[in-house]
Amino acid sequence: MIELENPDHKSGFFIFSRRQTAIYHLADPGGTAYLGGMKKIGVLTSGGDAPGMNAGIRSVVRTAISQGAEVVGIIGGYSGILEKRFQDMNLRSVANIIQRGGTILKTGRSLEFMKPEFRKQAAENLQAAGIEGLVCIGGDGSFRGAHALWQEHQIPVTGIPGTIDNDIFGTENTIGFDTAVNTALECIDKIRDTAASHDRLFIVEVMGRNCGLIASHVGLAGGAELIFAPDLVITVDQAVERIKAGMNKGKTSSILVAAEGQKPGRAYDLAEQIRKKTGLDAKVCILGHIQRGGTPTANDRILASQLGAAAVDGLLKGERDVMFGMQGNQIVKVPFETATTQVKSTPKEYLNLANILAN
Amino acid sequence: MIELENPDHKSGFFIFSRRQTAIYHLADPGGTAYLGGMKKIGVLTSGGDAPGMNAGIRSVVRTAISQGAEVVGIIGGYSGILEKRFQDMNLRSVANIIQRGGTILKTGRSLEFMKPEFRKQAAENLQAAGIEGLVCIGGDGSFRGAHALWQEHQIPVTGIPGTIDNDIFGTENTIGFDTAVNTALECIDKIRDTAASHDRLFIVEVMGRNCGLIASHVGLAGGAELIFAPDLVITVDQAVERIKAGMNKGKTSSILVAAEGQKPGRAYDLAEQIRKKTGLDAKVCILGHIQRGGTPTANDRILASQLGAAAVDGLLKGERDVMFGMQGNQIVKVPFETATTQVKSTPKEYLNLANILAN
Amino acid sequence: MIELENPDHKSGFFIFSRRQTAIYHLADPGGTAYLGGMKKIGVLTSGGDAPGMNAGIRSVVRTAISQGAEVVGIIGGYSGILEKRFQDMNLRSVANIIQRGGTILKTGRSLEFMKPEFRKQAAENLQAAGIEGLVCIGGDGSFRGAHALWQEHQIPVTGIPGTIDNDIFGTENTIGFDTAVNTALECIDKIRDTAASHDRLFIVEVMGRNCGLIASHVGLAGGAELIFAPDLVITVDQAVERIKAGMNKGKTSSILVAAEGQKPGRAYDLAEQIRKKTGLDAKVCILGHIQRGGTPTANDRILASQLGAAAVDGLLKGERDVMFGMQGNQIVKVPFETATTQVKSTPKEYLNLANILAN
Amino acid sequence: MIELENPDHKSGFFIFSRRQTAIYHLADPGGTAYLGGMKKIGVLTSGGDAPGMNAGIRSVVRTAISQGAEVVGIIGGYSGILEKRFQDMNLRSVANIIQRGGTILKTGRSLEFMKPEFRKQAAENLQAAGIEGLVCIGGDGSFRGAHALWQEHQIPVTGIPGTIDNDIFGTENTIGFDTAVNTALECIDKIRDTAASHDRLFIVEVMGRNCGLIASHVGLAGGAELIFAPDLVITVDQAVERIKAGMNKGKTSSILVAAEGQKPGRAYDLAEQIRKKTGLDAKVCILGHIQRGGTPTANDRILASQLGAAAVDGLLKGERDVMFGMQGNQIVKVPFETATTQVKSTPKEYLNLANILAN
């Protein structure tokens, strides 16, 4: 019923649908045979919360119900399975949440779920509750858990990528990334006001533990003079040189964007080092969890709506152990194993372009 | 130096660069031979203004200067050529504008420029000012003008799509579209607050003369109960039926999104007809030019930065009579003729998905 | 225990507390004697919803509980009393609502409640439910109802002004006004972007049926060229003259702000008349209910928090038939009769100042 | 011509006008006698920039021109006088700036201006340029400079309070305070989304070196569990106790708001101490200069417009050595000496109310 095209070996994922959202037409709402007997599915959010998760939950719930399935909301991520925090969802349960940040199902990181004995317990709890399949909205840790649930206990799981970091391989954007970038950008814009009035140097620390996707997008869009990504080395001397070069060209202020990397607050160290070398007093802003919140952007809501529908559609049609993502405006499916083992890096083209345009 | 791949006959455009922004690496800043002797280029914005145009101007100016060319800003669109409103631009001319709505070059629609004799005058004015090539930021009308300048007078022109309507064929998004959608969405969110408090029916009229791209994106992202696009017929009876069905399912309020079509203000007519048939008092909001303004989103600034650089790069490397756009995250070049004669329609998948999810 | 100062006969209200929020210190949480035996109070929102109502509800609930009283939320305004839609509230019932637009208690306008026999029924329902006093958050219609409940049935009621229109006498600001003004202002700012790019004429229609407070604040803060208030006559000829004078002074665009008055959508009529007289094509935006929604501003939340606490405090201490408002940064109490019979008018000083500054 | 009422000895300021903006009617545009021969005035912004300063500049320029005076903009604060950075202003110089953050006149803190010999030079520069009076927009440091200019060299100066900190005695609000509070509040709201999803503890550091006005407003409006002001001692043990009490009442997350005090970044120290005592991992956000930027709120623009007009009006009518502020919705004049020597403290009522309402 679904044409699965040949895998693209270079990129490591399958194209699920050539026509962006064509899959929604294939649904056969009445056919229980079509559901493979799957009458009840669960949905959970896991890992760090991200704006747009609620739009994803809404899409999962309403798509599933429109296809004849029941939906159970699991509260608090994987811990919620262990603690049997199950809640029946109907069409109205997800009314008026599409615009809300956070997640109505709450989320969390479960240390217990990393141990096989607890996953066994989880599988038993799901079966006891009649939950025959699962849609998981989260990041790579969440997908590793989902992958294990399938491998070890044959619980059918599909996933959609929800994390502001955009560090999931196999999808161009994760749900929440666009909002986080725009939130950080609004902050940069405000600093730009004061920078233009005052002839100053600013360091804005954004999220991004391992990859610099937020930093590179925010830096390019915000016209930053310099972008520090966790996976690219810039020495303080190089930074100082760049700041001075800008001043020589007539710039009266500079904004540096730095990913937090392994140590939130490191912008203060950077400021201190710049101060020692130049005497310039860099002002520091640490955006922190501000970037996780806020009303999701249109893109995040649309992405979440599309992928949520695809994840339900796929699950009901027999897909297992895969994430649904978006690539080149097409919905793709990516094995959890691929999504969680391959790595996205900071796009150097963005940094190069930012470099030219910040002249 | 640039690999031009075979045209994709189905889509009507050429892929300019497989790697998203790879082209910026190809530049050979010092080589005047490479510039083909082109020492001075002009840049203008034309048609309705769109948020992100300033980011595009900034990218054109700074990319060109980084490649050794001079840049002249033309004030007021094509009329500015006729009136010789030329202004030399340097790196600082575009400082601190990346976040500004509108366009520092001002824009306009020139009736005169539609006549050959005025285009002849324009070509002469450009030559007299030593402007050897042109980057045009605008919509389809603007590209028709650019196409004629090349066809009739061999003025080399490249273009980038700047219009909130996203009605340019050959690029997934135009500069300004993402901002306009998010602006309209913020308005819908506010109405959602009051709708949830009050049990009411709302009609929000958004821009979109010929196609329903803004309406469909806003409607899907905003959770609208019904979306009216200019190119799809929904009768008032169908609308009334849908509103009543929602109420029967327990919905206490409904938000309808309507593209303005050929007649801004038509939401009042729709409200009146619904009132007559149902007695329900629909409240009307007409967003109008609010959607043209505001700080551009990250996406619009990044798109404008990338396409602005590509348009300069292409122009200096010998591309003519083409628009640069973005398709599947790749920069593509599209002949002006293709971009201005083929038509984008409202994506029905969006409407279908919106329909399912608004249950 | 409370020093009631002499009435200020000119202004028609009493000063309730010289020190802005001193009253919160007077509370005697344990003392039931102090509560005058009042153990359970109700809270409702009525009339058009306004941003900040939720902050008001939160303040009423938590202040009352902190003083030893129980609180019942009444759903849907006065109709909720007639329909016995009573809901027990605890500290957690109002968690995480301070930032939400709309009202969790929903609101409405009850035609029945205007009739004495229904008010009798309401009083009986309240007594049957053990609700001994009422805090009403709403506008003048709501206060007339509250006044009647006290006059006819000795139900103790205090009120706080919640309406975006700011048309309640006896308080400088009503809850929701500041948010509505800022929302409209954001729209004006967006139009300003496009106006500056394009040399155009805009008419922005804001709320305000009888008085021009929103229009005058938005117009002054937005730098509007002309402000139309419902209670001040400006002829189209005067408007045209003003627009032309601006152009003569070098203005390239004009923004007019018009209160909707008795007929939402009247901006189209105005545009049409200006078009006939000048040939200028004025673009129209009708903000409508957008102004009712959105996250409340800091001022609205603080005002709602302060007045909510005062209304509970006053009710428990024996105040009846009064609204609590803010005047010159002092909490004042105003008899409902005063608040609902005297009229606020559009501040002419604002219009004069706007006039000078829009030069 | 202006009725100066008796000083209110308790509060230390004079009421300048009973009717909020009545002064604008008193102007006698044509009368040069009225101007006391003052034909040219200067305007500058000084100290930290604040949103709304541009609205203030606009008001000063247009009011002065409407009264027949010329205006010179001084670039970069007091340093601009020393460096003779004078720029003639006309009506169009301040077009389209009312909504811009920052200040078009740039600002700065001049160390030289603290020395008498440089003030002597400044006075000579002003006289040489024909600048007969000065309007200064800034904070207490700026007013001390203005006071010295008058005392030592009889340069007539009036001032209006522009600083986000709101730490100027004699005016309820300073220009920029309302915007800064709302900016910080938006950040809190975003954190609230993620806090509600995740059961966490957050510390948000806001500006405020000596007084806790931003912290107390943001904390009350944001529903913070605890507010740290620079002038009020809360021990870490008290904080820990409060956090635990909240958890016992069922709270799943807590947001603490802390003024930066003498050491920006101190929220990290606080987080570390809480971690040691409770094991709870508090997440930190440092808003920093974000709070200085952004589009000014309606209140800040209106305040700046009113006070700017009053400062010109006063200067032309013979007022010297005074700041114009707003008290109880009346424009007041306050001697610079009073404004700069008396101290505003954190309003304890706000903290008390926040305490009750955060239950």
Looking across the biggest beta sheet of chain A, what order are the strands in? 1-12-11-6-5-2-3-4
- Uncertain residue ranges of chain A: 1-35
Number of strands of chain A: 12
Measured by residues with Cβ under 8 Å of the partner chain's Cβ, the largest interface is:
A-B, 58 and 58 residues
Order of helices and strands of chain A: EEHEHEHEHEHEHEHEHEHEEHH
Quote the beta fraction of chain A.
15-25%
CATH topology of the largest domain in chain A, by name, is Rossmann fold
Helix content of chain A: 25-40%
Question: Which structural class best describes the helix and strand composition of chain A?
Answer: alpha/beta
The rough form of chain A would be described as elongated
Distance between the termini of chain A: 54 Å
Number of domains of chain A: 2
Alpha-carbon Rg of chain A, integer: 22 Å
Oligomer: homotetramer
Note the total helix count of chain A. Answer: 11
Mean pLDDT across all residues of chain A, rounded? 89
- The second-level CATH architecture of the largest domain in chain A is 3-Layer(aba) Sandwich
Description:
Four copies of one chain form a homotetramer. The first copy, chain A, is α/β, with parallel strands linked by helices and 359 residues long. Chain A folds into two domains: 14-176 and 296-341, 3-Layer(aba) Sandwich (Rossmann fold), CATH 3.40.50.450; 177-292, 3-Layer(aba) Sandwich (Rossmann fold). Chain A has helices spanning 53-66, 78-82, 116-128, 140-153, 177-198, 213-222, 236-248, 266-278, 298-316, 336-341, 348-357; strands at 14-15, 40-45, 70-74, 86-89, 133-138, 157-161, 201-206, 226-228, 254-259, 282-286, 322-327, 330-335. In chain A, strand 11 and strand 12 (330-335) form a beta hairpin. Chain A is elongated, with a radius of gyration of 22 Å. Residues 1-35 of chain A have low confidence and may be disordered. Chains in contact: A-B, A-D, B-C, C-D. At the A-B interface, helix 1, helix 5, helix 6, helix 9 and helix 11 of A face helix 2, helix 6, helix 7, helix 10 and helix 12 of B.
